[in-house]
Design goal:
8 helices
Amino acid sequence: MSNLQTFLSKSTGVISNAVKCGVRKMAAPSMVPPVAKSRYDSVKAAPVRLPKKLKILQPFQTSIFPNDRSQVRGVDNVVHQLLQRRYRLKNFHPIMRNTFLSVQLFPRDHILSNFRKSNISLVFNMHQLPMLNDRHLESGFKSRPKYKDLQFFDSKPSPMQSACGRTKSKKQFKELFVKSLQNFSNHRNNDRLFGIFVFHVLKVPVNQEQNEVILRDLENMCLDLLDKDNKWNDLKNLYNKSKDPSPQQLKNVQYSYGAKGLLDRRVRFPFSNKRTNKILKK
């Protein structure tokens, strides 16, 4: 046996006899983890609350005529859908019709008027707008396969197809509508104009001359409602004969702006009939 092997055998024996490894016994792990403590546990964050002054009605939530387009609001989304699906033009004839739009009116005592957000509310239906804002041009492009490779068909040729186009068109009609109402704010029967107007847009005006046509027709429409009792009575009778929406159809109406657990003092439906709303909520 070589000297190296002898040395290694002796070293191994010394180490194995001299060194002893003691394994420390670990405590059994607890089944319940310790609860983290913080010096902030006793502090509770108060919920964010809107100031009480917002309970005061805004001008458009009172029985006054709007003097700006911002004072003409819409309705609840559920009611908006009902107006378009249940009260179609073929069954509930418009009170005014021209090249650009057809107008329906739901008086203030109609059940859906409980859910309007302003004294005079306005709802738009723009699904009938033709391509290129012209019905004749639209019919001329019916043979689409012949032109399908044109870049034109990758664009948005109708105002309805873009959010910017819809917003701009609604703003234009709303301004004309508010302007037409200014002449009748002091009329003895001006409450006949309180309610929901539905504009079924057929064409968007593109110049001042067309704006004047719409403004004139809207003013004549208001004048007929205010001065001609027979036209007003016909409108009332039409809706009196119709069947009201069921509570089931209105169950998803949002009565408050507030999120869950947040107190919100803003008034969403300032002209709602509490008795009617109580029945619908059952």
